[in-house]
Amino acid sequence: MHPAYSVIFFTTASGAGYGLLILLGLLGPLGWVPQTSVFGLVGLGLALTLVTGGLLSSTAHLGHPERAWRALSQWRSSWLSREGVASLATYVPAGVLGIGWVFLERTDGFFAAMGVLAAVFAVGTLVCTGMIYASLPTIRAWHQPFVVPVYVALGLATGALLLSLLLLLVGVATAWAPWLAILTLAAAWLLKTASWARADRAERIYTVEQATGLGRFGKVRPLEPPHTQPNYVMREMGYRIGRKHAQKLRRIAVMLTFVVPVLVSALMLAAGSGIGLLLALGAVVSAGAGVLLERWLFFAEAEHVVMIYYGREAA
Predict the structure, then answer these.
(1) How many domains does the chain have?
(2) Which of 29, 78, 212, 271 is least surrounded by CB atoms within 10 angstroms?
């Protein structure tokens, strides 16, 4: 599949934003993070800015972005529509939590319920995003049970890294924040490794014989390509990356997304506040670059079954 940069940015930015929102919505009512107006404004402001920026960037992939609102009407059958509805619904409890946190410095009672509800809706949005891809049987690498958990886990991991950075920015040094980042990164690492392994082992069940219905006559080989010039299907569905390059990029993605942030988070446990702030910033930058690369690979390695008609023997 051709990697769409707008969608790559959307899944990276909004994933981190929803991950941060989930943690703020759950940890705020528990009193694990500062209840001050400044922290509420910066934390929720950053989470919703990432979410909004990601959602707006995703419309750039549409042929008619001005008609994006029409997708909301298909929530009964479309995971894309459900994602849109869930993302908009998340703003309501998140906004109410923001009012209580920023203006009243309260995250208890009714505002605590709004925080939990915002976290639930944020998780639901991430699930819908993952299901957009996991529900497609035409793409072998995506139609598997690890796609949705990876989306949720990466969102929580990047959100945890942002939370560690925000706490140090307001002068709060804790041991649990780096540990939370380490644990969520480790979980995301395991899930992503399992996802790659599942995709690599997945059987190619669709063949050119099956697609043409001529398999009963023996081996089928196209005499000519369907088109003499590149078309939309070939551009969007026919992108291909060599396995050698893919493996190299996977290793780089693992280093940037998981290894470096985990090691840096471990160093933060022993570092002072000043050095810890720089380390936290480095972990966020590394993970952000790594997730961008991981998202790019997610699309670049995907093979659509339609390419059987364009020369591939199986998909």
Answers:
(1) 1
(2) 212
